[in-house]
Design brief:
The chain contains 14 helices and no strands. The chain has 399 residues and is mainly α.
Length: 399
């Protein structure tokens, strides 16, 4: 058992196996963006932002399921040694299951719902049962036993939803995800058995910090893949080349805003925190918002490439401007995690994007995309200007 655990004195950098695992998520996130674009291009949906947001809610369910699989896998490789064959088997098996879930995304709310739900359950229950079997004489065995009970409980609405009509399926899968997320948040409490009181962030904050910024890179890479592929699906004309350029600039600015200082010192902030578990959960939430914002921006970029010079529908404006706004919201939470404060350009950027949205409806999508780039550029420039000539800021997490 002891040789399966990641040693505290060993390097905390993610391994090539974990980077290999992330390759599946390039494909998975591409399928999520494809579903978002479908949400925004259905006739009755595209004309009303509120309707498109309801459609996005279904896609969000699928994203949250994939997000939870990825997060749990990051926890596994933060506590166990990825160079050990049993751990490599678990990661590769999870990778294959994630691939099946990604394949099932397009019809997960219809004909492939059973494949999506059963694969999710098989990963969560099977992986946890595996660790219950191989871990001996360590608290992690008890933790996995508690988690197994919660995953068994959530399996019921997951599998029942796969056979239910769409509306009922959405409700059942929402309940299932709530069980999974709430269970982890509370430490998987079970009457008579107690609960887990140790967060993985408390023992592997540096490793998890790097895993999350690698996921941000994967999401940004998906944006480049999607925009490049979208350009090739039609004639290469001046307005579509401009749309590709704006998409690339958006991606570069999102990268710059993320990694400007706070993105480089998350591990240090977690290590310096009096409550690394609480701060780690905030960091997870911040990354969920940021990755969701990146995916919405990617969908917005594809919409611009579809019809760069036409009339931007309300839902399209919501994607093109809402993606960066959601990203800035997540980045604000992330900055609070690192420095216990939020710089004013981020909330101002969100307000400017929201204020622009109503007047952008009906304008060419290229103009809407250019406005989003201008706001992100303003945030990036303000970061550089504020820090010019000053020493690099050290982590100072909230107490």
């Amino acid at each position: 058992m002891a040789n399966l655990l990641r040693r505290r004195e060993s390097p905390q950098r993610p391994t090539f196996l974990e980077l290999f695992f992330d390759l599946v998520y390039v494909f998975a996130l591409t399928r999520i963006v494809h579903e978002l674009v479908l949400d925004y291009t259905r006739g009755h949906v595209a004309e009303r932002l509120t309707t498109s947001l309801a459609e996005n809610g279904e896609t969000l369910l699928l994203l949250l399921a994939l997000w939870w699989i990825w997060t749990q896998t990051a926890w596994v490789t933060s506590r166990f040694d990825p160079f050990q064959p049993p751990i490599q088997f678990v990661v590769v098996a999870t990778m294959y299951g994630s691939l099946l879930m990604a394949v099932a995304i397009s019809g997960a709310l219809a004909e492939t719902g059973l494949l999506f739900a059963s694969t999710y359950v098989a990963i969560q229950v099977g992986r946890t049962l595996f660790f219950v079997g191989i871990v001996r004489g360590h608290n992690l065995r008890r933790v996995n036993m508690l988690a197994l009970i919660w995953f068994g409980a959530s399996a019921v609405p997951w599998l029942a939803g796969a056979f239910a009509p769409e509306v009922t399926r959405n409700s059942l899968w929402t309940v299932a995800l709530a069980i999974d997320y709430l269970g982890a948040r509370l430490g998987w409490p079970v009457p008579g058995l107690g609960r887990s009181r140790v967060s993985p962030w408390a023992v592997a904050g540096e490793h998890l910090a790097e895993r999350y910024w690698q996921l941000v890179i994967v999401a940004l890479g998906e944006t480049i893949l999607t925009s490049g592929s979208s350009l090739l699906r039609g004639p290469i004309m001046a307005d579509r080349m401009m749309a590709l350029t704006l998409s690339f600039l958006t991606t570069v600015l999102l990268w710059r805003i993320y990694f400007y200082r706070a993105g480089q010192i998350l591990g240090e902030a977690i290590a310096a925190s009096a409550d690394p578990g609480r701060l780690g959960r905030l960091a997870e939430f911040a990354h969920l918002l940021m990755v969701s914002g990146i995916l919405a921006s990617s969908a917005g970029s594809e919409l611009v490439l579809i019809d760069p010079s036409g009339d931007a529908k309300p839902a399209w404006v919501g994607a093109i401007l809402g993606g960066p706004a959601l990203y800035l919201a997540g980045r604000s939470v992330f900055e609070y995690v690192a420095f216990a404060r939020v710089s004013w350009p981020r909330p101002i950027g969100i307000l400017v994007l929201a204020a622009m949205a109503p007047i952008m409806v009906g304008l060419p999508p290229l103009g809407v995309a250019a406005a989003a780039v201008a706001v992100l550029l303003g945030v990036a420039v303000s970061d550089t200007t504020r820090a010019h000539g000053l020493p690099l800021e050290e982590a100072s997490p909230p107490r």
